[in-house]
Amino acid sequence: MKKIIVPVDFSEYSENALQTAAFLAKRSDAEVLVVHMLELSNAVLSQSESYLQQEMLFYLKMTEKKLAEFLQKDYLSDIKVTPIIKHFKIFSEIDQLARNEGADLIVMGSKGASGLKEMFIGSNTEKVIRYAHVPVLVIKEEPIVKQIEKVLFACDFSDDDVKPYKEAKEFLKKFNAEIELVYVSTPTSKFKSTKELEERMKRFFNQTNESYEECAQKVKIISDYTVEKGVFYYANKINSDALMVATHGRKGVAHFFEGSISEDITNHSKLPVLSFKI
């Protein structure tokens, strides 16, 4: 990794993300781009042009000062840190910044979302994941500040999962970490028989240029009422350090009606979750 983007809002959650980014940056000699999105109220935006410019300048100076103070952390020493302030809270800008800068990873802190808030609003992290073309690492309760040893990759062995799985394996090489694949069998219309699943796995590992016989031994197949519950159950059982998921990044109406298992896992997990775009 050469560049890591960290959106911050000065909360404890964004500080967890910043500390994690610092840990990763030191391992790969990467630059950390710290982004704050300045959200101006409608009252400010409705003012006359000259007055608006004065107001924006005032808020910008305040934010620059606050961001500079926020970055006064010992764990950022010996790391190249670039502060960036965006004037509006448009989450697609994070992805555009990642493209412009050639960033390899976005690290975000999140407390998740639940209930009606999750259904109608969604979390800011969720919005970034939907737009981002680079992997997004979501940090929850604790920052990553030590060696990652065991990671669980939630997989259904579809063709869509091939690219994210390859990227996940490449990412974990930096940590020399063990990756374990888990498939959750649920009582739904997407249920697969043992034979169907074996054929699906053979096709999957053929596309990843790996031996089915060797890899199948490392796959854990469990049963639960939902994929989310199954993943959390097994992650807790093996004391996984983090979760990895593939996401379609659905937007708009498609996302509202279809939802996303990956987003549910990201929202409700207490462990760090790394998502890869399909």
Please outline what is shown here.
This protein is of the alpha/beta class and 278 residues long. The chain is built from 12 helices and 10 strands. Helix 10 packs across helix 12.
List the helices and strands and how they pair.
Layout: E1 3-7, H1 12-28, E2 31-37, H2 42-45, H3 49-70, E3 81-86, H4 92-101, E4 105-109, H5 115-120, H6 124-131, E5 136-139, E6 150-154, H7 162-172, E7 178-185, H8 194-207, H9 212-216, E8 219-223, H10 227-237, E9 242-247, H11 252-258, H12 261-268, E10 273-277
Parallel strand pairs: 1-2, 1-4, 2-3, 4-5, 6-7, 6-9, 7-8, 9-10
Antiparallel strand pairs: 5-10
Helix pairs in contact: 10-12
Characterization of this structure:
The chain is of the alpha/beta class. It is 44% helix and 20% strand. It is built from 12 helices and 10 strands. The chain has helices at 12-28, 42-45, 49-70, 92-101, 115-120, 124-131, 162-172, 194-207, 212-216, 227-237, 252-258, 261-268; strands spanning 3-7, 31-37, 81-86, 105-109, 136-139, 150-154, 178-185, 219-223, 242-247, 273-277. β1, α1 (12-28) and β2 (31-37) form a beta-alpha-beta unit. α10 (227-237) packs across α12. The radius of gyration is 20 Å and the shape is elongated. The two termini are 20 Å apart. Residues 116-121 and 252-259 have low confidence and may be disordered.
Number of helices: 12
Shape estimate: elongated
N-end to C-end Cα span: 20 Å
Q: What integer is the average pLDDT?
A: 85
Instruction: Compute the CA-based radius of gyration.
Output: 20 Å
Describe the sheet with the most strands: 10 strands, mixed
Number of strands: 10
Strand order across the largest sheet: 3-2-1-4-5-10-9-6-7-8
Q: Report strand %.
A: 15-25%
